[in-house]
Design brief:
Shape: globular
Strand order of the largest sheet: 5-4-3-6-7-9-8
Helix content: 25-40%
Structural class: alpha/beta
CATH architecture: 3-Layer(aba) Sandwich
Largest sheet: 7 strands, mixed
Distance between the termini: 28 Å
Amino acid sequence: MVDGSDQPTHALAPAAPGVAATEFDRFLAVLVEKWREVPGSTQERVYSSSFLEQPDDAFHAAWRSLYDNNCSGPGYSVRGWYHDLYQPLATQGGAWLDVGSGMGYDGVYFARCGARVTFLDIVADNLRIIERVCQLEGLTAVDFKHMDSIESLADLGQFDGILAVGSLINAPYELMCMERAALASHLRTGGRWLELCYPRERWAREGSLPFAQWGKRTDGERTPWVEWYDLPKLCMALAPHAFETILATNFHDNDFNWFDLVKRE
């Protein structure tokens, strides 16, 4: 298991077949406890169960305020820019999967643009927030999938685009290899894999901590794990599926990196 030591990327390999689904699901239970606390504004987090308690008007206004905070003004340099970049792709329609959808800022935007979006999350209350937002905004080309085990990914269907914004970096590498491979099997040949990660440069800048400690620094005290990715490490994590790179870049002063890959087989 990767422990956060200064291990060269080329030393990593895809997860061994013997990595048991029970190990994945055991860590999944830990992640569920953390990620019921979702990014609200760019400065704070909210608990989805509490957020749902508001009446419709207050709920929708609060969600809209958080969306604006994340996607415009200072938040544009984190999230809004890729909304604009992929808006033409979404207007072509097709089926998209928003992995670890949280409060739904990305998937809701692309659903508004014309994509049919399936929201996938490990926390049921997160999905309830998004479903309620979609109902209030009249979005009907949407589906919702609760991931309660690695096996629950088997019946997802096929997608033209898979979007994972920071949702596949918060468990040990070999476990995320399992999830990425399972997800990529649902991406059509020629489909786009879009992913936001944290780069190695940020990890080094913040002290090269073991990943179990680094997560507490990047995403709060309740975070059990966060791991850096670069392009070679991501491509190995997607094996046995092969991808061609359209874009791989660090941004926001090396706080994040962005990958736009096309599935070849």
